[in-house]
Amino acid sequence: MSDTFEAVIGLEIHAQLLTATKIFCGCSTAFGAPPNAHACPVCVGLPGALPVLNRRAVDLAVTAALALGCEVQERSVFARKNYFYPDLPKGYQISQFELPLALGGGLQMPASVGGRFVKLTRIHMEEDAGKSLHEGFADSDRKTYLDYNRSGVPLVEIVSEPDMRSAEEAALFFETLRQILVWLGVNDGNMDEGSLRCDANVSVRRPGDPKLGTKTEVKNVNSFRYLEKAIEFEIGRHIDVLDHGGRIVQETRLFDAAQGKTYSMRSKEEAHDYRYFPEPDLPPLMVDAARRDRIKAALPELPEARRRRLIAEYGIPEYDAALLTQTRGVADYFEQTARSCGNAKAASNWVMGEVLRNMKERAVAIEAVPITPAALAGLITIVEQGTISSTVAKDVFARMYDTGRAAAEIVAADGLAQISDTSSLEPIVQRVLAAHPDVVAEIKAGKDRKFQFLVGQVMKETRGKGDPKLVTDLMRAALGT
Ligand code: ADP
Ligand code: ZN
Ligand code: MG
């Protein structure tokens, strides 16, 4: 990027609130149902049907706002945002406009992306629209089908100030926000299913210029990588236009992931006049101090605070703390394991290693891992006591995962205990020496690096159960080297 321009980025993020039912009716919000399985007179906009605000949705929105340091407004107001589109059956979307649920707040970004505090402008509540299905039917060349399952799904829109200065920072902001929302149980973080979506506003200006440049908005970029790419492309495009004496046209654009480019969707002239007015069917939303304080008191320790505490309390490296706090469940699992075995670094290694690897391979969350923290602690303890080697321990872990049995039980029943008595190992050492006279001769002639080969043969014969230190000692003694 040319150093004569500075990029300016602001994000607008739509997050589905994790309620069982929609924002103004009792229809299910479950993903993946057949089209229109979750629809009723309210969410398909039949005349006379009246909305009733979902209390749980408000609690979740307030939870997010408080965790992000926003000021929750005692009184906020739903409005009608009018536009015509087939997936919007009422002809308007109910959304907070002039008086949103929360103002201010923000996120501290790390030094690696400039160390800025990225402020939030506002958080407001709104309903999602339905979905137009343009393909997948025999007559899709002539017809568009409509699915209202998403119509009326509760959302918060989180709007940032234009405080970010690089694509990387914006992607990290979105990632950090996602982690917090999922951590709070406010959102499921599923960008593929559309429960978390991001629009990026981009402009460039000369460094030091107090005035912002003309922005373009890239709609619905739904992966961190694509967001970064889309913004990078837009920054480059803006600079290119300006460098060639052109002017940026304020418009909405879409990102084509295959091409790595954005293209125009609609210009400002085509932008809607939404004719907002207060929703007459809903009273103002009142969130009193008691409700706000109750939700605030119930906020969990947030990811960043948790990372700092894990480092301080358990003495684990920052790298470990970052991995162990990827979700609240993983952090809890680690802490329980560490506390119950008393060896935090060993607990960390096991969780970062076998536990996360199994979760990834089996595509399951920590809650679905059948080995309890106490059971993992049991495994760690018998490794520490020298009952089994760490190599065998991985095998024991796999058997624990498959059978749900305790480590000690598996070791006893499957004969996996470490062989650490001379009388058992000595004959095996002798057998290996007798089987490899050529190697023995080489070692005696000074090729000591062949020594490990012989140790390896003994370990193989014991199927990994020989105590490696004792095997080494016995082998040295037998060779007299
Ligand atoms: P609009 O009226 O087009 O919706 P807003 O002022 O409401 O614009 O801002 C929408 C988003 O765009 C916010 O996230 C804001 O931070 C960001 N934004 C506003 N102006 C700019 C700009 N010049 N460059 C980059 N982002 C901007
Ligand atoms: Zn409904
Ligand atoms: Mg706006």
Descriptive notes:
- The chain is of the alpha+beta class and 481 residues long.
- 40% of the residues lie in helices and 18% in strands.
- The chain has helices at 55-67, 167-184, 224-243, 289-297, 303-314, 318-324, 328-341, 344-362, 373-384, 390-403, 407-413, 422-435, 437-444, 451-461, 468-479, and strands at 6-16, 71-72, 75-76, 78-82, 92-96, 102-103, 106-108, 117-127, 131-133, 145-147, 154-160, 196-205, 216-219, 251-256, 261-267, 277-278, 285-286.
- α3 (224-243) links the parallel β13 (216-219) and β14.
- The N and C termini lie far apart (63 Å).
- Bound molecules: adenosine-5'-diphosphate, zinc ion (ZN) and magnesium ion (MG).
Average pLDDT number: 95
Unreliable parts: none
The total beta strand count reads: 17
Class per helix and strand makeup: alpha+beta
Largest sheet composition: 10 strands, mixed
Number of domains: 3
Q: In terms of quaternary structure, what is this?
A: single chain
- Helix percentage: 25-40%
> What is the helix tally?
15
Shape: elongated
Each distinct ligand: adenosine-5'-diphosphate, zinc ion, magnesium ion
Strand content: 15-25%
User: What is the rounded distance between the termini?
Assistant: 63 Å
Cα Rg: 30 Å
